[in-house]
Amino acid sequence: MKEQPILSVEHLSVSFRVSRRQQVTVVRDVSFDLMPGHILAIVGESGCGKSVTASAITGLLPHGQGKVSGGHIHYKGQDLTSLREKEYRKLRGREIAMIFQDPMTSLNPVQRISVQMSEMICKALHVSRPEALERAAKALGDVGIPNPENRLSAYPFELSGGMIQRVMIAMALAVHPSVLIADEPTTALDVTIQAQVLQLIQDLRDREGMSVMLITHDMGVVAETADDVMVMYAGEQVEYGVCRDIIGDPKHPYTSGLLRSLPRLDVDQDTLYSIEGTVPPPVELPGCRFAERCESCFAPCQNVKPSLAVWDGRQVRCHLYGEVNHHE
Fold first, then answer.
1. Neighbours of 104 (CB within 10 A)
2. What is the set of domains in the chain, with CATH numbers?
3. How many Cβ atoms are within 10 Å of 54's Cβ, its own excluded?
4. Residue 302 and which of 71, 152, 173, 322 are 20 to 30 A apart at CA?
């Protein structure tokens, strides 16, 4: 019997209200599966829709502004798009935990770390406060915070940005969720702590079967940690498949550009490669959204929207591999 995904996103679209009469679709027709015990990396530049996709999954889109405008999100067979907020709260934190991109705004500045961590752990696991504090101290130690018992008594403003990021990671991991969504979890950390945190996430995956959705722009991190990769550009998925295949032989020109921008030790480089231009605004375009920045652009790219094609074991949204390929 084929293993079923623990989290399945099907044709997800997310829209934001920009005025009384106008809505803009910022994520369009995104589909992927997160398998039990796997790490799925979602990759792309800022503004590509990675964090919005995560917010839609966790039910944290801004109320009254953002909404799931199409598709479905299934967690263990349950359609999350049909849940009310009260039902979502039972899953969020305990079953599906999230590490946010901006840790500085995630903690209450006038409450000690011990209060915030123990309240979350007590609510999620239904344990006593002493046991919650014990779990909190262990979680802080696991993410490399020295003297964790002493740090529990600190206020957030007494900690550095990197330390607060580690506290947020510890809070998410303390309850051992089934799914962890990590939005740029190592952004504020030095290289040594980055490696330690990523190793901790991998260890929890290996030991407890935790599934991880890792949102990042760092292809180096992806190559080291991910089982599967989905590359997003301008709110759309442009390549999706097994990590080793995509890293070793990228098909979409955008994926190739991201990988070319990585520094290499085996090549003498005076300057790093960068993709010219910027991500376009979330407006409907007649052709490929990457066309203006693409070195492989040819005639159909400007006027014909590419569909997802299955090519060499992965999905690619590019005319080089679609029905209008003029190079065949």
1. 15
2. 7-95+177-286 (3.40.50.300), 107-176 (no CATH)
3. 20
4. 71
Residues in the chain: 328
In Å, what is the CA distance from 77 to each residue of 72, 87, 239, 271?
11, 15, 25, 48
Residue type, 210: M
CB contact at 8 A, 73 and 9: yes
- Name beta bridge partners: 14: 27, 68
Alpha-carbon distance 167 to 170, whole Å?
5
Is 106 in contact with 100 (CB distance < 8 Å)?
yes
pLDDT of residue 323: 64
E-strand ranges in 96-150 read: 96-99
- Number of CB atoms found within 10 A of residue 37's CB: 15
Question: Would the pLDDT of 188 be above 80?
Answer: no
Task: Quote the strand ranges of 48-89, DSSP E.
Answer: 66-75, 78-79
CA dist 41 and 32 (Å) reads: 11
Shortest CA distance to 253 belongs to which of 242, 265, 261?
261
Distance CA 175, CA 70 (A): 31
Which tokens go with 214? 């890792």
Per-residue pLDDT tens over the stretch 135-184: 999 999 988 889 999 999 999 999 887 788 889 889 988 888 999 999 98
Q: Are β-strands 179-183 and 96-99 bridged in parallel, bridged antiparallel, or unpaired?
A: parallel
Residues β-bridged to residue 201: none
Cβ contact 59:73 at 8 Å? no
* Of the candidates 42, 53, 102, the residue with the CA atom closest to the CA atom of residue 258: 42
Mean pLDDT (whole number) for 12-34: 93
Neighbours of 187 (CB within 10 A): 16
